[in-house]
Structures are given as C-alpha cells and as structure tokens.
Amino acid sequence: MSERAGEVKQKSELRSDLHERETDIGKSPGQTACSRKSSNSRLVKSAMRTHEQTSRCDFIEDDGGRFGSSFMGRTEARDCVVRALTIAACEDYGVVYAEIAYLSEQMGGRRSARDGVQPKVYKAWLAHRGFVWTPTMQIGSGCTVHMRPDELPSGRLVVRLSGHLCAVIDGVIHDTADPSRDGTRCVYGYWRRP
C-alpha cells in the first residue's frame, strides 16, 4: 500500500470514529437536559489529531440550551456561569438562569445572570447542589493542572479558569468556544459531585 493510500485510509477511519462519537452525543433527544443534545451543540474537535496533540481536550460547541430557550443573543451573552452550571448539573437553562439571577439579587448584586456573576453567587448555587470544590492552584504554586483530559478527573465538572467557567464532561469541553488554549490554559480548580 502506498504512503498516500495509507494516509487516506487512516483519515477515513478517523472520520468514521468522529461520526460514531457525534451520533453517540445526544442519541435520545428530548427527555432531560442531560439526555438531550443542546439546541446548539456540535462536536468541533475530535479524534482527527496528530500524535503531538493528543493531550488536548476534545471540544463540543454547546450553549447549554440557551438558543432553544427564550433568550436572545446567544453569542454575546457573557453567560458562561449559567451555561457551565446548566451543562454540568443537567439542569434547564431557564431554571438555572432564574435561580442565579435571584441569588445574585439576594446577595446584593444585580438581578441578571447575563453580564457576569459574582463568585459568591455561583459557589452558593454549586454547594446547594452538592458540588465540591477542588483547588488545583495555590498562591505562589504556579500552574499544576491544565485543560487536558489526562490532568482533569472524569465526570461532570465545572472548571474555573481565569475570568471564565466552563463545563468539562469526561475530558470533553462543553462551551460556546474552546477555552483550552490547546491544552495550555491553567485550571484554578473545579467543582464536582462526589
């Protein structure tokens, strides 16, 4: 077999793997927030990588159900907190949005979850849902955990990054854009249900 034919065969096998993964994501739409594929989710990066890139997380573009709900302006929303909580906790976007907005107002903030949320608000929401914080970076320790599947535990995580929260499910990032910086972005810590 020529080198070109071998390369074509390998790409074909990777595309087949990609297709299987896409069909596995959200096979039974419509039952719960966790069993369905978000209204705006698609597999963006997958097994089609070179050997040097294998430590980078896969990425699924996922708005957490925002586009399918009554909320307008899905890209400029600055709603990473609600999106990450919705995806990781398997909750409805509208319900999480309303709860975060209510908590924000009760804790002295604005009644909106659209323009950034104070950490005390989402920490209280996560603790109430049984999520436990695991810090991965201390003052002066430097970066010890990056956005890589081999450095994050499996399960449904809410990962805290610099100025951003995102959901990671079994090493796959679920967000509207890939925040991993090709696996080099530092993780401050993550919340996970025990």
Describe this structure in words.
It is built from 4 helices and 7 strands. It has 194 residues and is an alpha+beta fold. The chain is globular, with a radius of gyration of 18 Å. Strand 4 and strand 5 (164-169) form a beta hairpin. The protein has one domain. It starts with a helix and ends with a strand. Strands 1-2-6-5-4-7-3 form a 7-stranded mixed sheet, with helices on one face. The model is unreliable at 4-33 and 45-53 (pLDDT under 50). The longest helix has 22 residues, at 3-24. It has helices at residues 3-24, 80-89, 93-106, 119-128, and strands at residues 42-45, 58-61, 132-135, 156-161, 164-169, 172-175, 189-192.
Please name the defining characteristics of this protein:
7 strands, 194 residues, alpha+beta
